[in-house]
Design brief:
The chain is an alpha/beta fold. It has helices spanning 4-21, 54-57, 108-114; strands at residues 24-31, 49-52, 66-74, 86-94, 104-107, 122-128. It has a six-stranded mixed barrel with strand order 1-5-2-4-3-6. Residues 1-23 form the signal peptide.
């Protein structure tokens, strides 16, 4: 039994390092009108949601995907330390080019969980969960 516990601890450490290493850098902004959405029309999907940029959209395949998003820092000098943490969001909409200014456009509520909304746009990392 003594050998199994260290092996499990080691395995857990390796898995957590792989998870951290696989996070993808990007940017996040926020929006405030959630319905209708490209994925669910007028069905309310709550407020822990986001809109996928063209890089993630994949012709609608992104609908329903869950992403863990973590603030990593500012994109400008307006708010030098905007970060508060991380949040998991469901993709419910598309943030189309050329108007989309980020990788994931978060709901205002989701953005507020990870960063100061006064920042407007932040650097972040994300991975699908």
């Amino acid at each position: 039994m003594a050998i199994k516990i260290p092996a499990l601890v080691f395995l857990g450490l390796v898995v957590s390092l792989i998870s951290v290493a696989s996070a993808i850098p990007g940017t996040a902004t926020y929006y405030t009108v959630y319905v209708p959405s490209a994925c669910y029309g007028y069905q309310d999907q709550g407020v822990m949601i986001g809109a996928a940029s063209d890089a993630l959209w994949e012709n609608g395949a992104a609908c329903g995907r869950m992403y863990k998003v973590r603030c990593t820092g500012p994109t400008n000098q307006g708010v030098p330390e905007p970060c508060r943490g991380e949040v998991t969001v469901k993709i419910v909409d598309r943030c189309p080019s050329p108007g989309c200014q980020s990788t994931i456009d978060l709901s205002q509520e989701a953005f507020s969980m990870i960063a100061d909304p006064a920042a407007g746009k932040i650097n972040m990392e994300y991975n699908q969960v």
